[in-house]
Specification:
This protein is α/β, with parallel strands linked by helices. It has 6 helices and 10 strands. The protein is globular, with a radius of gyration of 16 Å. The structure holds glycinamide ribonucleotide. Glycinamide ribonucleotide binds next to helix 1, strand 6 and helix 6.
Length: about 210
């Protein structure tokens, strides 16, 4: 079994395409002393992402990189990788980053890219997971923190939280209640990494102790 990161403070890059509430929840967990980490940089692929402003307000380096100004994903990710190396990032945190990660970043940060998804994977991967759950009629959904691999929302699972689906739920009302749980399990999952307790065993993430 392979340990993902040795015990010690995580040096994080947070990637966000939108609102940035998960970024903010991580920031607050660090401030409270619940998560042993530093956020070195927030990266967005969207120029107007509120997450960029949230980072600037917290005095965290906020970088917008436009994927469309590169000839292909590898070139875009090579620039990202350069930035992450400059900032001595050890773990990449996807927090509402609406883009598949390619081989350049996956190879350099093998098992060290983490994502949060608003459903109980492997159910409802991809976009609008909360609406998918409502439309399917499941009675429980939730959220999943997982290690990123080459698939879409397929990597080893670190933590999940269950949220009941109520009879009158819309995608939006369910999303709001799932988000409350996201804000709890993301920092907890990352803290397991900071404690050096997470190992990869085939397709499983194993948590020691
Ligand atoms: C969160 O609900 C997150 O789980 C979801 O986007 C939202 C981002 O919110 N991510 C995905 O759907 C990834 N496929 P935030 O910007 O307020 O953190």
């Amino acid at each position: 079994m392979m340990q993902i990161t040795p015990a010690g403070p995580l040096q994080l890059a947070v990637f966000a395409s939108g609102r940035g509430s998960n970024f903010d929840a991580l920031y607050q967990a660090i401030e409270r002393g619940d998560l042993n980490a530093n956020i070195k940089v927030l990266v967005s692929d969207k120029e107007n992402a509120p997450a960029l402003d949230k980072a600037r307000k917290r005095n965290i380096k906020a970088i917008y990189l436009n994927p469309r100004s590169y000839i292909n994903r590898d070139e875009y990710e090579n620039d990202l990788l350069k930035l992450l190396k400059e900032q001595q990032v050890t773990v990449v945190v996807l927090a509402g980053y609406m883009r598949l990660v390619g081989p350049v970043l996956l190879e350099h940060f093998r098992h060290r890219i983490v994502n949060i998804h608003p459903a109980l994977l492997p159910s409802f991967p991809g976009l609008q997971a909360q609406q998918q759950a409502v439309d399917y009629g499941v009675k429980y959904s939730g959220c999943t923190v997982h290690i990123v691999d080459a698939g879409m929302d397929t990597g080893p699972i670190l933590m999940q939280a269950v949220v009941p689906v109520l009879p009158d739920d819309s995608g939006d009302t369910l999303a709001q209640r799932i988000l409350v749980e996201e804000h709890k399990i993301y920092w907890r999952s990352l803290q397991l990494l900071a404690e050096g307790r997470v190992y990869i065993d085939g397709r499983k993430a194993v948590i020691k102790n």
